[in-house]
Amino acid sequence: EVQLQESGPGLVKPSQSLSLTCSVTGYSITSSYRWNWIRKFPGNKLEWMGYINSAGSTNYNPSLKSRISITRDTSKNQFFLQVNSVTTEDTATYYCARLGVRVMDAWGQGASVTVSS
Amino acid sequence: QIMLTQQAESLWISPGERVSITCRASQSLLYTDGKHYLSWYQQRPGQTTKALIYHASVRTDGVPTRFIGSGSGTEFTLSIEHVQPEDFAIYYCLQTLKSPFTFGSGTKLEIK
Question: What mean pLDDT is reported for chain A?
Answer without folding.
Answer: 97
